[in-house]
Amino acid sequence: MALRKDALLAATRIMQDVVAAAHRHPPHGRGTVGMVQVFPNSRNVIPGRVKFSIDLRNSTDALVDQMADEVKAFAARVAKDSGLGVQIELVSSYPAQIFHNDCIDAVARAAKKLGYSNMPAVSGAGHDAVYMAKLAPSGMIFIPCKDGISHNEIEDAKPEHITAGCNVLLHAMLERAGVA
């Protein structure tokens, strides 16, 4: 066992640090390893290479950069300790998009007016609103989804939650237009 160079063992240590980095940066830190490929992917062959994705998110670019630096430093230590090469390649990066406070407040007031619970939320997902916010004041409305799953083929929302979200949007837009 001491002579083995197990790439999967090293990779799992780094994967665990991706999640740990998110926990080190609450409340909005997120760390996900969503794709893993093991080579040669045979049940009785020591993995010689592992390729996996790392997705880091937080409320600001500076926090994401800090998380990334921590994961890179940890990966360098794993490489040194294991004697294995570790290569990290940036595939994509999206800057944080702050939404307009007036829009956020209008959504909160509309939800309260209609008797719906609401809370501020930070989302790292690439919603259309991210692109709209570059053109005009924008905000977002989230509604409950079955088992908390969204941005997925099995996303499922109840009609009454969709209706509530639409009504919140309507009232927020009317307020912003000055007719409510």
Structure description:
This protein has helices at residues 7-24, 61-82, 101-113, 128-132, 159-177, and strands at 30-32, 36-39, 49-52, 55-57. The chain has 180 residues and is mainly alpha-helical. It has two domains: 7-82, Alpha-Beta Plaits, CATH 3.30.70; 101-177, Orthogonal Bundle (DNA polymerase, domain 1), CATH 1.10.150.900. The strands form two sheets. A two-stranded antiparallel ribbon has the order 1-4. A two-stranded antiparallel sheet has the order 2-3. The longest helix is centred in the middle third of the chain and has 22 residues, at 61-82.
List the helices and strands and how they pair.
Elements: H1 7-24, E1 30-32, E2 36-39, E3 49-52, E4 55-57, H2 61-82, H3 101-113, H4 128-132, H5 159-177
